[in-house]
Structure formats: C-alpha cells, structure tokens
Amino acid sequence: MATADPKKKKKKRRKKESLEHKRNRILVALAVFVAVYALDELGVLERAFGNPGDVYASFMLFLVPFVIAGHDVLKKAWNNIRHGKAFDESFLMAVATLGAFAMVFFPDTDPHMAEGAAVMLFYQVGELFQAYAVGKSRKSISSMMDIAPDYANIEDAEGNLKQVDPNEVACGSIIVIKPGERVPIDGTIVEGATQLDTAALTGESIPRHAETGAEVVSGCINMTGLIKVKTTKPFGESTVSRILELVENASEKKARTENFITRFARIYTPAVTGAAALLAVGGGIVTGAWPDWILRGLTFLVVSCPCALVISVPLSFFGGIGGASKIGVLVKGSNYLEALAEVDTVVFDKTGTLTRGTFSVAEIHPENGYTESSLLEMAALAESFSDHPIAQSVRAAYTGELDSKRIANSGNDSGHGVFATIDGKKVIVGNAKMLAKAGFTAPDCEIAGTILHVLVDTTYAGHIVIADTVKDDAKQTISDLHAAGVRRCVMLTGDREEVAAAVSRELCLDEYHAQLLPGDKVERVEKLLASEGAKHKLAFVGDGINDAPVLTRADVGIAMGAMGSDAAIEAADIVLMDDKPSNIARAMRIARKTMGIVWQNIVFALSVKLLILALAALGIANMWLAVFGDVGVAIIAILNAMRAMNVKGA
Amino acid sequence: MKKSFKLDEIDCANCARELQDELTQLEGVKSVSVNFMTQKLTLEAEDNEFEEVLDRVVEFTAEAEPDCEIIL
C-alpha cells in the first residue's frame, strides 16, 4: 500500500448502495418493465413500428428496466472479467441475460427480451431478499449474544459514580453494580447482597443469591440490591468476554459438511458452466437449432451458482451454536456440533457430573449408649481442624457449638482418619483400617458411601455414613439420552465398587467402571473408543478440572459447571456453564436438529438445481424457473437455516 | 501473529469463499479466513512481516471485491 497513491485509494472507496436504495431502484425497474410488457402484449408497439420493427422497439424498451435493475450486476461482472474471474455469479447472470437479449439477432425465433429483463429483475429481487434474510439472522444472532455490558461504574473520591469503559478497569478495582445492571467484570462482592439472574450465561431462570464474599461472574444481571465488587480479572479475561470470543470464533472450526460444501462449490460452478457451453455448442451442431440450444445453455448458467449451499450450511451451524449458547451450552466449533449429533456413547465422570460432588452426612448409626447427636458431636469435634471435604461435611451436619478448648492433641492419619483428645477421652474417627490399627474390628454397614467409624477410648460409639448424592436431573438425563439414540451411557469413577454400583442402578446406566485412578480413565476411554464404530462418536463429560487429558482424548469433550473456570473452558470442546447434566441431552437435541437442517438444505438445494438442470437440458425449463433455482432456493434455505437458532423445544 | 478485522461488507457467501481461496495463495499468508456470517477476516502471518502481508491482503481485496472494505 505504501506505493499506492492515497488519492486514488480514496476514489475507489465509493459509497455502498443501501438496501433501501436498491429496493426502490428495483421497484422502479419493475414498474417500467410492466409498462413495456403491457405495450408489447397489447400490440401497441406493432401498430406503431410495424413488423419486424416492433421487435427492435421492444428490444430497446426492455433494455431500460434491465439496465435500471441490473447495472450494478453488469458492472461487477465487467470488473470480474478484468480480473480473470469468470465463474462469478454476477458474470453468469450478465451472460445469461445479455444472451437472452442477443436472441434478437435470430429473427426467426421467438423474442426473449422480456425474459432477459425479467430474469435480471427476479434475480435482483431475490438478492435483495437474501440480503435482508442474512442481515436479519446476523442481527438476531448477535443480539442473542448481546451479553457484554458497555460500561462499568467506578466510585470517585467524592462518592459519585462514573461510567467508564470496562476495558479500562484495572484488576483489583472496586466497581459498583446497581440493580438492573449487568455485571461487567468478574469479581468478588465486598459490600451488599443481591439476587443475580444468570439466565444469559446458564439458561437457568432461578435467580442466584449472592452476598459479601461471593464471587460474581460477568454477564449476570444484578436484580435486587446495589453491590460493590472487587474485580479479580481484567475485562478481556472475564467470563463474558471469553464466552463471546469463543462463540464468535466457533464458526472458524469448520464441520466436515461445511468443508464438503466448500470443495463441492469449487467444482460445481466450472462443471455447470462447462456443461452449458457443451450443451449450447453440441446441441447447435447436431440439430442446427442454434438459438434454442444457446438458450438452454444460458438457462444452465443461471443455476450454476452454489450460493444457497454456501450460505445456508454455515448459517445453520452458526444458528445452532448461537441457540445453544442461549441455554448455557458453549460449543467451540461447528465440527463439535456435528460430532455431538453422531455421539452414541456418553462417558460420565461420576463426581460433580452425575452426583453433586459435595459430601454430606447421609446416615448416623450410634451404638453402645451414644445418641445421634452425641456421636455427631464427637466426630465434629475430632474433625475440627481438618480441611478434608469429609471433615467439612461432618462439621456442616453438626448444628451445635464447636468449642476448640475441649480438643487437645488432634492430628490426622492421612487417608484413613483423624484422632484427637476430647474432654480427656481419646477419640478416633476414621475408616476400618484406622480402627484395625487401634485393635478394633469395624462392623460392616450395608449403605453405600464413605463410612466413618467413631471410637471413644475403648468404646465403639457407632458410625457415620458420608455420601455424595445424585443430582436431581441425572436420571432424567440418562433416559433422555437413551431416547435420543445414545446406545451406551458409561460412568467412570475413582470411587469404590459398591458406591458406583448403587449410583449406576439408581440412574439405569449401561456400564460403570469403579476404583479407577486418574490415569486409568484415559485408558478406559481409549478402550471404549476402540469399540466404537467408525461412524459413531464418543463424548466424555467431566467437571473439566481434573480430567483434561480425557476431555482431549474423547471425540467430544464436555465440561460442565464451568462458569468462571478457565481451565475447564480451555480443555473442553463443549462447555456447559451450569452443572445440570440435563443440558447435555438438550445440547444433543440441538446438534441433531442443526444437522437435520443442514442436510435438508443440502438435499433440497442440490435436488432442485439438478432437476432444473435436467429440465433445462431437455428444453422444458425456462429461465424463470432457473432464477427460482438460484435465488429462490437460496432464500428458502436461509429461512430454514434460521430455524436452528430456535432452541425452545430442545 | 493472528489478527481479526471487520469487513464492510462482503455481500455474498460464495464470494467470501472465493476471496478466502485467493487470499490464501498470497505471499506470506500463513492462514486466512473470510467469515461471511460474522463479516470478519482473520489473518495469520509471521510477526516481522505482518504489516506487509496485511497490505497485500488489503490491496488484493480492494481489487477483487471493490464493494468490500477491510476496516483496519
């Protein structure tokens, strides 16, 4: 560009024609066309100019609407010829319509000027519709993703609020979010409490309560109270920015179907154009009826643009991905949406995916004179200083006061349990191994879960069962997946056999593998992958934190409960913002629907075009039909593609 | 280096596809994508010659698709 003259460059940048202007221009051309057509049909021209003078008169008159409507197409075509691009749509339209006009030089055939002008008009009307439809779908997709706030409130020294660009807010600043505003940047609440609407991120309509100390995620709407938030990330790394980037870039990762269409488009136009030339010349030589065969060739040219396919397939994927993001499912590429539609094995990590992942006290079985509350009190006191999730759940279950003065000599035996001296008594809380070390044989408990035995001095005080509970919608999810055609639902867990079996029974899973170490999970998934058919895909669902290797190994890696977790968003192909497994089934329905639409469009567009080509070759189809085959099909395909955005039923 | 630019505007999907095919063959272009749906051009080239390559891409686009402007 350094060599280019800036003036020259400016000259080139002429103002683009607006859609309204184009619409008006086409309406004018249409009016003129109708007038000329009427004059021609009513015989006015014949009376005025005689025969064959009327043919030349109508030739000139039909040129008027033709040029009004199509001058930009002709200009574009000319521009393309200069650049050696022959197979451009406007070039083909120009050749086809000018060709129709040129029929006037064969005085013994029917004149085709009306057809030439009408085809150009019809084509332009179609282009206009197409521009409207694409513009509208683009707008509705971007408004769907309009979750990025444009400002953040910062309080200045006098306590006045100032609106600033969220990009300029440094990490660690305090921002103020008023009721009704969107959280612009991820952070922690330092003052105030409120209800947050996370629907834009997770699709979940029940508001979430948040108070001082709670983390807030950008993109949520602050509903009830004013909160002050200390930002923990810059705007560019906040959840909302990352989501938008992800969804925008998703269409860069092309699905197989898209690549197929691209390759197809590359050969389709030259092939049809070649066929057109062959038809015109071949037919002309064989039969000698040149005008007729040239017209058939020109009709071929009109359907030779693959636009319907090239637009509608990516548009469907774009709509599907946009629609999925509306329910809190982020798909990182069209290829993953396509793969998800072919999934027939879903492998779940148990903890945090099918189960809540938080432990809670499920049962208390006191013995030897202890009551439920006294047993729990002992256990809670002994576990006072442990950060282990099990200890936390025991403390959470105990409602009384924990007086640390009562505890002495506390410690833990890693992986087995804890010990402490409470009120002068030696208390051991732990598993059967820990008890065995102390010389006791722990009784069995038939309930699946982690069992904490409590030993006070030499008395067995009973045991507490800690279990991870199954998520409310887990069972429904499995049956939905089965209904959607998933053959196998498999659960992998590091947990014990009995626990896994119990969960598996409850959820009606097809398969489970228990007591796996993290490395075993990859191996297990490899085995399952090997047993897959070539056309079927395997999806792995995990929490995205510990299972990055498995997520990458699976055909489709799905991370859930990822709101605010960068690692999970990074590792997965599909990200569920909240932690409801039922969204997997919904995402799959969206994927299936999108693929359905994609194939409908491909089959519809191709069969209409082939049909028209066949009819044109036989001389049955005229140019009118051919224009429908071009723009009409494109518009129908675009309208169909827009259905992919609608995810209400999914 | 990889950078995205807004396009104003490429009005036909097939043209976007063709433009992408042609831009890919320009000297110094590592990868380029012309996205019709998002109206975005993403260009990848070596850091030290990025500006040069970008100039080439802009110039070519202005020639091939006079209606389409790359907003820098």
Overview of the molecule:
The complex is a heterodimer of chains A (650) and B (72). Chain A is of the alpha+beta class and 650 residues long. Chain A is 51% helix and 18% strand. Chain A contains 22 helices and 22 strands. A 7-stranded mixed β-sheet of chain A has the order 10-22-21-20-11-18-19, with helices on both faces. A 6-stranded antiparallel β-sheet of chain A has the order 2-1-3-9-4-7, with no helix packed on it. A 6-stranded antiparallel β-sheet of chain A has the order 12-17-16-15-14-13. Chain A is elongated, with a radius of gyration of 35 Å. The two termini of chain A are 51 Å apart. In chain A, 46% of the residues are buried. Chain B is an alpha+beta fold and 72 residues long. Chain B has one domain (2-71): Alpha-Beta Plaits (2-Layer Sandwich), CATH 3.30.70.100. Chain B has helices at residues 13-24, 50-64, and strands at residues 2-8, 31-35, 40-44, 69-71. Chain B has a 4-stranded antiparallel β-sheet with strand order 2-3-1-4. In chain B, a hairpin with a 4-residue loop joins strand 2 and strand 3 (40-44). The radius of gyration of chain B is 11 Å and the shape is globular. The model of chain B has no long low-confidence stretch (mean pLDDT 85). The chains are: A alpha+beta (650), B alpha+beta (72).
